[in-house]
């Protein structure tokens, strides 16, 4: 870890690729999918209420077309706006601000990395499993902004297209669907990378998982995760580094070793006060209508 930090600090690593999964958002309160630490607390262990034939069906496109209700019940819980980014998301932003992030590849659909949230600009972010930010009618393919669906999703209804009455599906990539075109940036990014940081993922879902093997064999790969996963468990390379345990603690240690702690704290404080300011402005705006 100290070597990795030194390489970043001395700017020997200037094209860092980050791969992330649900484990970076558990500190924000969002359950991951298949947690090993406390079986029973992963999302897939807690779907009985939706009466699914098997857990993964909730993200299967064939099942969705037959019965979209379970997905929308879950979408109500996971819809962006309910959760705040944590130190891991802000670390990626700081890496970008230092000019050392080549790209972040995330499997997360919570949008916490995004420009308007933790501040990672769109061109730096590949949301490999899609996003709630946009949606598409499954019948006429009309495009929607995710915010247009919010009232219906929050009321527990299945959003319908006003034009054709088809079900409007958030642009989340379901099993059985194509990954977004942006995913294929990996073809040029990974051979260029000079450091790969993998955090908060079980590396169980393909094709995302295989990206970890797409960096050159001389490139150091740092895993920050609760447990050993993917090639870190079964195909270690000489330059691989693993920091096992809580992801926030692991990233914090890296940030401390980099000497970036104050900057990161300032970034997080600014992010939080920005959100307070927005909500204060919103309150002021709303108060103007208090006569209603
Ligand atoms: P998983 O739930 O499969 O894996 C999360 C990983 O993060 C596990 O290795 C956990 O041990 C680890 N973890 C969780 N909380 C942590 C913490 N606080 N500190 C350190 N480690 C922690 O999630 P993903 O790998 O993201 O696909 O799952 C990949 C895909 O499977 C998802 O994108 C989703 C799902 O099916 C789709 O929706 C298409």
* Low-confidence regions: 276-292
Number of strands: 9
The chain-level structural class is: alpha/beta
Biggest sheet record: 6 strands, parallel
Average pLDDT number: 89
What is the string of SSEs from the N terminus onward? Answer: HEHHHEEEEHEHEEHEHH
Strand line-up across the major sheet: 3-2-1-7-8-9
Topology of helices and strands:
Elements: H1 2-9, E1 16-20, H2 61-66, H3 69-78, H4 87-97, E2 101-106, E3 125-127, E4 130-137, E5 143-145, H5 146-154, E6 168-172, H6 186-192, E7 195-199, E8 221-225, H7 230-234, E9 240-244, H8 247-258, H9 261-287
Parallel strand pairs: 1-2, 1-7, 2-3, 7-8, 8-9
Antiparallel strand pairs: 4-5, 4-6
Helix pairs in contact: 1-8, 4-9
The chain binds 2'-O-acetyl adenosine-5-diphosphoribose (OAD).
Features:
9 helices, about 35% helix, SIR2/SIRT2 'Small Domain', about 290 residues, three-stranded antiparallel β-sheet, alpha/beta, six-stranded parallel β-sheet, single chain, binds 2'-O-acetyl adenosine-5-diphosphoribose
């Amino acid at each position: 870890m100290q070597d990795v930090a030194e390489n970043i600090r001395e700017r020997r690593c200037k094209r860092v690729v980050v791969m992330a999964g649900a484990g970076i958002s558990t500190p924000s309160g969002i359950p991951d999918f298949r947690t090993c630490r406390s079986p029973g607390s992963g999302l897939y262990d807690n779907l009985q209420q939706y009466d699914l034939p098997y857990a993964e069906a909730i993200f299967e496109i064939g099942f969705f077309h037959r019965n979209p209700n379970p997905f929308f019940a879950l979408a109500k819980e996971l819809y962006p706006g309910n959760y705040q980014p944590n130190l891991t998301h802000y670390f990626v932003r700081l890496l970008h601000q230092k000019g050392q992030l080549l790209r972040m590849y995330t499997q997360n659909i919570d949008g916490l990395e995004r420009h308007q949230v933790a501040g990672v600009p769109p061109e730096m972010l590949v949301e490999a499993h899609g996003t709630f930010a946009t949606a598409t009618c499954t019948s006429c393919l009309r495009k929607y902004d995710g915010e247009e669906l919010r009232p219906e999703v929050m009321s527990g209804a299945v959003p319908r297209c006003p034009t054709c009455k088809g079900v409007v599906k958030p642009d989340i990539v379901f099993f059985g669907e194509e990954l977004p075109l942006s995913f294929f940036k990996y073809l040029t990014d990974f051979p260029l990378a000079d450091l790969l940081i993998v955090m908060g993922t079980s590396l169980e879902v393909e094709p995302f998982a295989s990206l970890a093997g797409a960096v050159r064999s001389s490139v150091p790969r740092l895993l920050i995760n609760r447990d050993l996963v993917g090639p870190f468990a079964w195909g270690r390379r000489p330059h691989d580094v693993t920091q096992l345990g809580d992801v926030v603690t692991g990233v914090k240690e890296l940030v401390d070793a980099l000497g970036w702690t104050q900057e990161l704290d300032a970034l997080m404080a600014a992010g939080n006060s920005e959100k307070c300011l927005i909500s204060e402005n919103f309150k002021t705006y709303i108060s103007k209508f208090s006569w209603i």
